[in-house]
Amino acid sequence: MVKSTVQDATAQDEFAATALTSLDGRYRSATRPLAERISEFALMRNRVRVEVEWFLFLAGIEAIAQLPPADAATASRLRALYESFDAGAFARIKEIERRTNHDMKAVEYFVKEQLDGTPLQQHREFVHFACTSEDINNIAYALMLRDAVREVWQPQVQAVQERLAGMAVQWRDVAMLTRTHGQAATPSTLGKEIAVFAYRLQRQLRAVAGLEYLAKINGATGTFSAHVLAYPDVDWEARSREFVESFGLVHNPLTTQIEPHDFMAEAFHVMQRVHTICTDLCVDAWLYISIGYFRQRLVAGEVGSSTMPHKVNPIDFENAEANFGLANASLQHLSTKLPVSRLQRDLSDSSTLRTIGTAIGYGSVALAALLRGLGKLELDAALIAKVLDSAWEVLGEGVQTVMRKAGGDDPYDQMKQLTRGTTLTRESYLAFIAGSDLDESEKQRLSAVTPSDYIGRASSLVDRAG
């Protein structure tokens, strides 16, 4: 009888044991870099950042005479609130939230508290001045998404792409039998087939690099109404742009109460495409392992089966495939739900936004697994050569094409009768060429061709993968 319980585990193990998703349980160590950038803690830190910077920004506008500029010491003290944001600060905000039942208002009150003892303590009402919650939230979420993509997810994709490009160059001249519809097909090189994936990812990485991260700060319905009523002489549209761009974000000048999240959908769409390409790669790698083109480097102590000791399973590719699927299911919902809002505002996006980390987290776990799997692959060159050398029927495509050039009588049907559903040997191939109507120079040229020679420009195409 198993007597151990969750209470018997260490605090860390207990957390993992009770986590509702594998991201915060089994994969916690892998997702920690993301958690630092896109989590409840990160959201609060970024909210504090935006509130502080908006307060300091207003203090720098000469027309707002009631709020004097912040001295260097006060500005430094306030910026330390987010630069050194810690568990204690997070706990204080959550404590306030239990009273307000409003997380954004709790952040506002927290920042106001921190003005005590500063020269600006009497001006605390300029914290969150003319803002709706979404003015703060949309900037915070844009910062989190940008940092999660650029600093965690994108480098992982880049690492996969670079690994593939290196493998393509390494194996550019390894001729192999390909399969279309699962059947033997025109040979290629292993390097060229891997280069296809490297090139696909390279294209998507260009799209990722071009993503824009939008934000706004324009009031309750995007009209600057409160701003203008309080300070009609301030160019609030220009100031809004200036403030948003100070974070390295792109200003959205025309919104309802919320930034409409179209830029997020764009990001999630390109992420889905990357994950789909990687899923395709996982499936192919799994199949190449299955037919023996690849062996997997053994890991000491690793077990492949609870009953079959010989097994070395392609678990990294299987794990990646599963997590890419989970990621894309979430990203699909995010990309179709977030841009849809009832009239000027509803709160359905609020709950949805909180799952962004989950979607990116599954993708990040999958990318890490894929990279591990690629690192374990070892080529079985002898088997690849043997398989290809036994498939002389694949030369039928090239031969009938040359016969067409020479004006032969229905060359496709001739080759079909010779090769379809049968195994063609070198001897029967040479006999066919010798008995054909081709001139002697063409016969000699085709007689010298072997399956491993019939790879066209496969090797040089590798260079396209960059």
From TrEMBL:
It catalyses: N(6)-(1,2-dicarboxyethyl)-AMP = fumarate + AMP; (2S)-2-[5-amino-1-(5-phospho-beta-D-ribosyl)imidazole-4-carboxamido]succinate = 5-amino-1-(5-phospho-beta-D-ribosyl)imidazole-4-carboxamide + fumarate. GO terms for biological process: 'de novo' AMP biosynthetic process; 'de novo' IMP biosynthetic process. Residues 341-455 form the Adenylosuccinate lyase PurB C-terminal domain. One of its GO terms (molecular function) is (S)-2-(5-amino-1-(5-phospho-D-ribosyl)imidazole-4-carboxamido) succinate lyase (fumarate-forming) activity. InterPro entries: Fumarase/histidase_N, Fumarate_lyase_CS, Fumarate_lyase_fam, Fumarate_lyase_N, L-Aspartase-like, Pur_lyase, PurB_bact, PurB_C. Pathway: Purine metabolism; AMP biosynthesis via de novo pathway; AMP from IMP: step 2/2; Purine metabolism; IMP biosynthesis via de novo pathway; 5-amino-1-(5-phospho-D-ribosyl)imidazole-4-carboxamide from 5-amino-1-(5-phospho-D-ribosyl)imidazole-4-carboxylate: step 2/2. It is an enzyme of class 4 (lyase). Catalyzes two reactions in de novo purine nucleotide biosynthesis. Catalyzes the breakdown of 5-aminoimidazole- (N-succinylocarboxamide) ribotide (SAICAR or 2-[5-amino-1-(5-phospho-beta-D-ribosyl)imidazole-4-carboxamido]succinate) to 5-aminoimidazole-4-carboxamide ribotide (AICAR or 5-amino-1-(5-phospho-beta-D-ribosyl)imidazole-4-carboxamide) and fumarate, and of adenylosuccinate (ADS or N(6)-(1,2-dicarboxyethyl)-AMP) to adenosine monophosphate (AMP) and fumarate. PANTHER family: ADENYLOSUCCINATE LYASE. Belongs to the lyase 1 family. Adenylosuccinate lyase subfamily. NCBIfam families: PRK09285.1, purB. This is Adenylosuccinate lyase. It comes from Lichenicoccus roseus.
